[in-house]
Amino acid sequence: xxxxxxxxxxxxxxxxxxxxxxxxxxxxxxxxxxxxxxxxxxxxxxxxxxxxxxxxxxxxxxxxxxxxxxxxxxxxxxxxxxxxxxxxxxxxxxxxxxxxxxxxxxxxxxxxxxxxxxxxxxxxxxxxxxxxxxxxxxxxxxxxxxxxxxxxxxxxxxxxxxxxxxxxxxxxxxxxxxxxxxxxxxxxxxxxxxxxxxxxxxxxxxxxxxxxxxxxxxxxxxxxxxxxxxxxxxxxxxxxxxxxxxxxxxxxxxxxxxxxxxxxxxxxxxxxxxxxxxxxxxxxxxxxxxxxxxxxxxxxxxxxxxxxxxxxxxxxxxxxxxxxxxxxxxxxxxxxxxxxxxxxxxxxxxxxxxxxxxxxxxxxxxxxxxxxxxxxxxxxxxxxxxxxxxxxxxxxxxxxxxxxxxxxxxxxxxxxxxxxxxxxxxxxxxxxxxxxxxxxxxxxxxxxxxxxxxxxxxxxxxxxxxxxxxxxxxxxxxxxxxxxxxxxxxxxxxxxxxxxxxxxxxxxxxxxxxxxxxxxxxxxxxxxxxxxxxxxxxxxxxxxxxxxxxxxxxxxxxxxxxxxxxxxxxxxxxxxxxxxxxxxxxxxxxxxxxxxxxxxxxxxxxxxxxxxxxxxxxxxxxxxxxxxxxxxxxxxxxxxxxxxxxxxxxxxxxxxxxxxxxxxxxxxxxxxxxxxxxxxxxxxxxxxxxxxxxxxxxxxxxxxxxxxxxxxxxxxxxxxxxxxxxxxxxxxxxxxxxxxxxxxxxxxxxxxxxxxxxxxxxxxxxxxxxxxxxxxxxxxxxxxxxxxxxxxxxxxxxxxxxxxxxxxxxxxxxxxxxxxxxxxxxxxxxxxxxxxxxxxxxxxxxxxxxxxxxxxxxxxxxxxxxxxxxxxxxxxxxxxxxxxxxxxxxxxxxxxxxxxxxxxxxxxxxxxxxxxxxxxxxxxx
Length: 925
Known about the structure:
- By secondary structure, this protein is α/β, with parallel strands linked by helices.
- Among the domains are: about 20-95 and about 215-280, 3-Layer(aba) Sandwich (Rossmann fold); about 105-210, no CATH class; about 280-370; about 380-465, Arc Repressor Mutant, subunit A, CATH 1.10.10; about 465-545; about 825-925, no CATH class.
- The strands form 4 sheets. Strands 2-6-7-1-8 form a 5-stranded parallel β-sheet, sandwiched between helices. A 3-stranded antiparallel β-sheet has the order 3-5-4, with no helix packed on it. Strands 11-13-12 form a 3-stranded antiparallel β-sheet.
- Strand 6, helix 8 (about 230-245) and strand 7 form a beta-alpha-beta unit.
- The radius of gyration is 33 Å and the shape is elongated.
C-alpha cells in the first residue's frame, strides 16, 4: 500500500506565479488590443513540460474576472496524444455549446442548433450545424448545399474550414454591427447575413435585430497541449490565426516541438500574432517558490536544505519543484503533525533525508516516485500506461481480471467488489499526484483518467516485459471492440488498431487501420487518413491478409489523399501498385482509374509525354469496360493535355466531346469542369467571346453548387480574359476575389496560380515591387509542390517584374530559368511565351545581347506558328517588330526596315481577324 498516509495535503499546494510579470503583461496587452481595436489577435506560449504555460494562462484569466471592464468569455480545449483529427476543436466547441459528459445526443443537438440560430439569426443554420456536428460527433441533417458537394472530399473539407471561421467570427461579433472584409462569395458562405459585392472584396454585415444590446465581452479561445494536436487541427488553427476577423483572442499553448514541427507558425513581422517563450525561473525565483510550497513547515531547522536540494534538481522548472515536494512526502521527509486538522503544520525529518539518496536528475526523481509505489499500485499504473496517456476504469477492470478465477455464478456483488477496489487505488493515486480525472470522458458509460506526468507513464512502459505487454494489449483491444461508437469514429478505430497491432493481431489491425482511414477520409481529415492508410497497407505488405477489393479501394483512396497533401511521389507509388494488382486480376476499369490518376499526376507536374501515354491507356481500358464516367473524365483530361501542348484543334474536339458525355450523365460539377476547359481552349485560340461564355457558365454552376475551388478557378480564368482584352483593372479585381477564395480553400496549387496572375497584373499596372512580392510567394509554393509548370510561370513573371525595375541581369536569370523549365516539360505554349520574355529582356538590356534577343523572339514566333496559337503569334510578331525598329540598323538597312514592317503588318492582320471573329460570334449569340 501507500507509503504516505491517506489525506496528506502536500500535493494540494501549488507553486505561486513568480517571475512571469512580463508575460502576464503581454497577454493583458493582447486582450486590451482586442477590446480596443475590435480585431482578432493570437498569442502562442511555448515552453517545455512543467515550465508553467497553463498556469500562466489560468492566472491571467483569473485576473481578468476581477477587472471592472468585464470578464471575457473563455472556452478551452486541450489536445490529447493520439486524438482525432479535430480533437482539440471538438473540446473547445463543447465548452462553447455547454455539451457535458453523458448528455443525450438529441439534447446536445438541440442545444447546438438553438445557440447557432441565436448567433446567425436562422440563416445557414443547417449548413453550420452539419459541419459543427461532424467535429462534435453529432449527426445533423444535410442541406442541398451539402448534398451537392458531399462526394467531393476536398470541397467538404474546405467548407468545414469556412464554416468554423464564419461561426467564430459571427459569435465574436454577436450584439454588434460590423463589416467583415475579405470573405468568400455568397454561394459558399455559411455565415450569418446578406452579402454585397464590391470591386475588391465581398463583405458581410452581421447584426442582431431588435433592441440594441450591449456588446459582448471579447472571446478568448484557449488551445492547450498543441504538441499533441493532429496536423489537420494545426492547419485549421493556423488558418484562423491568419484570417479570423472578430474581437477574439486565441491563446495557443505548446511545447517547443510543435513550433519546430510548424516552422511558419509565427511568421516574422506578424502584427497580430505574438510569441511568448517561457524560460526557466532564476535561482532566486525558484527558491521563492519552494519556500512558499514549504510554508506549512514554518521556520524550522532543515527547511533551507530541502529548498537547496529541490531547486538544484528542478533547474527553474516549477512543476519539478512541485514534484520534489511530492517526493519529500513519499520519502516521509515531511509529515503532517496532526492528520485530523484541516491545516496541519508539517514536520521535517532531516534524519530521513540523510538516509535516502536525493535524485540527481529528472530521471532519478521519476524512478524514486515509481519506487515509492506499492506493488499493486505499480501493476495498476503499468496497465494504465499500456492504454495510453488517457485510460479508463473499464479497461483496467478487464486487464485485472485476466488472472482472476472466474466464479461459477457471476453475481453483481462480486463484480462490484473488484471494481470498488480498483477505484479506491485510483483515488489514492490521484491524491498523490500520479493521475487526474477527466470530466469530459470519451465513453459516457466509463470513468476516464490521465497521467499527471507523461514521463512517469513512459518510464512505467519500459518496465513491462514484452510478453506481458502483448497480453495486455490484446485485453485492451478486446475491451475496446465492445465499446459503443468505436466503429464510427476514426480516433477510436485508430486506438483499437494500435492495440491489435501491438498484440500481434496483424490481420485484424490492418483491417481496422483501413476502416479508420476510410472514416477519416470521409470526414476530410486527410492527414490522419494518410497515416492510417500507410499503417494498414504497410501491414498488408508485411504479410497480413485482406481481400483484393479492399486493397484496391485503399490504394486508390490513399493515392488521392497523398496527392491532396502534395506528396506526389508517394501518390505515384500507390497508383502504380493499384495498377499492378488490377492487371493481375484483369480488372480494366480499375486499371483505367490507376492509369488516369498517374496521367493527371504527370500532367499537373509538367511531364506531358508521360501523361499522354497513361491517359490514352486509361481511355482504352474504360472503353473496354464500358465505364461511361471513366470515359468522360479521361477524354476531358486528354483535352486539357492537348491544350497545354498547344494543339487547339484536338483540345477543342476532346473538350466538346467530354462536355457532351457529361451532360448526358447529368453531373453538374463535371459539366462545369468541361466548360472551364473548353473556355481555356477558346481563349488561347483568340475566341474571347466564346471563352467568356464558357467561363461564365462554369462560374454560375460552381456558385450554385458551392464549389469553392471551382469558383476560384473560374474567377481566375475570367481575369486572364480581362488581361487579354487589356482591361487590367477588371483583371485585378477578379484575381483578388479569386485569391481570397483560394486562400479559404487552402489549395496551394490554386493559390500559387492566382498569386502569379496577381503579380503579373500589378506589373502591368506599374507596380513591380508589389508584383515581386506576390510572384516570390508563388515561386516558393510551386517549388514546394514540385509543380514545374507553375514554377516556370512564376519565375517568368519575376523576370518581367525585374525588367520593369531595370534590373536586367536578374531579369535575364529568371527568364532563362523559365525557358529551361518549359523545355524540360515540353509545354510549347509556355515555352513560346518564356522565349518572348527572354527576348524582350535581352533586347531592353541592349549591347551584345540584342542579336540573341532576336533569335529568342523568332523561336517564339516559330513555335506559335507550328501550334496555331494566333494570339501569342501576333504578340511575338509585334514585339519582334518593335525590337527591329529600336535597332541602329532600322534607319540604315532597308532589309531590317522591311522585315519590321512585315512583322507589324502580320501582327495587325491577326488581331483584325481575331476582332472580326469575336464580333461574328457575338452577333450569333
